[in-house]
């Protein structure tokens, strides 16, 4: 299936795609572990747990990766502490990847008809707060998080909802073939596939190694690659 050019909707992941939030997420996890009286973990280990939402991040860190703990009160305590801590410290070290703002500006200038949005597994409120803080919100008509729907990525529901909303805004039907999902993990690629959309993988993100398990249609080595990949005709398949 070839991509319709130019696309009508581009949906971005947040962590590892637009922002590098690794240190703040890892610090929040280790603060949670210390609060629970458990040993802290190396940043490299915690980084491997990122991508499936806050609940799974915390479960993996406390040793409940399959979510089969019988002590849900303990898990809830851990998750609550993590969210409260991260809410305060989410901007301590987080930064926008170099080239992101310029790439979004270029896409907006060269393709004003393209709508853009955020779909992340991070809880929606910190996602929106972070985008607002860094001046990213102005590019996106919507920002949905992992708790915005009944299921997280790679379930396609969130992406399908954004396609529907974009169609209403554009006053025309936007199809999955006219949609690109941009992200740094196999979760983002699978979300696109499950919806019938195309994907751009980000080799500079938090978990780019996971793209080997689900190769994207295009590969961006830097955010500055996004405009050319989006405008490419025929598609540049890697």
Could you please describe the fold and organization of this structure?
- Helices cover 40% and strands 12% of the residues.
- 45% of the residues are buried.
- A 6-stranded parallel β-sheet has the order 5-4-1-6-7-8. Strands 2-3 form a two-stranded antiparallel sheet.
- It has 238 residues and is of the alpha/beta class.
- Strand 4 (115-119), helix 6 (124-133) and strand 5 form a beta-alpha-beta unit.
- The chain has 2 domains: 9-20 and 94-231, Rossmann fold; 22-89, DNA polymerase, domain 1, CATH 1.10.150.
- It starts with 8 loop residues before the first strand and ends in a 7-residue tail after the last helix.
- The chain is globular, with a radius of gyration of 18 Å.
- It is built from 9 helices and 8 strands.
- Helix 3 (54-61) crosses helix 4 (72-89).
- Residues 233-238 have low confidence and may be disordered.
